Amino acid sequence: MFEDEFGVDNIKMIRIKYFNHFVDGKNKKVPALNKITKGDWIDLRSAIPVRLKKGQNALIPLGVAMQLPVGYEAIVAPRSSTFKKYHVIQTNSIGVIDNSYCGDNDEWLLSVYATEDTFIPFGDRICQFRIQESAPQIQFNTVDHLDANDRGGFGSTGEK
Questions:
Q1: Residue 117 annotated among the catalytic residues of the structure
Q2: CA-to-CA distance for 70 and 14, rounded, in angstroms?
Q3: Residue 158 domain-assigned?
Q4: Residue-range definition of the domain harbouring residue 127
Q5: What is the DSSP string of 41-110?
Q6: Catalytic entry in 4, 40, 98, 144
Q7: What pTM was computed for the model?
Q8: Bridge-partner residues for 129, per DSSP?
Q9: In a domain, 76, yes or no
């Protein structure tokens, strides 16, 4: 995708674009993301204020688009406090953003469902992401039998 994907000390460099959203009569951008210093996940913020009624769905803009290095993808998941604070769940459980979703208009979004009436302010941290290597190229080989012992099927690890 781009030549300079390795920075100092072999750290992956990711190009990021921040989007302006009209909030409270002004153009605003979410705060800039920084290098990870603790943990593997990076928080993302709501780029607009969002008011939802119980049972409503929404695609919440996260204010960023990124050009991920070839062979990498992003996994987006709610923060541990998101449901407790805002009573929303991510409708697809996790989001997978591959490196082809990298154009100027490919803003990252969080798809949510409100379990109660709620309000999410502009700039609040609502989800997190991490970058990981994409799955390797694989090929399936159809066989009549597998050369391994059965484990016992689904739910076979026993009960406490």
A1: no
A2: 11
A3: no
A4: 8-133
A5: -EEEE-SS-EEE-TT-EEEEE-SEEEEPPTTEEEEEEE-TTHHHHH-EEETTSSEEEETT--STT---EE
A6: 98
A7: 0.82
A8: 42, 76
A9: yes
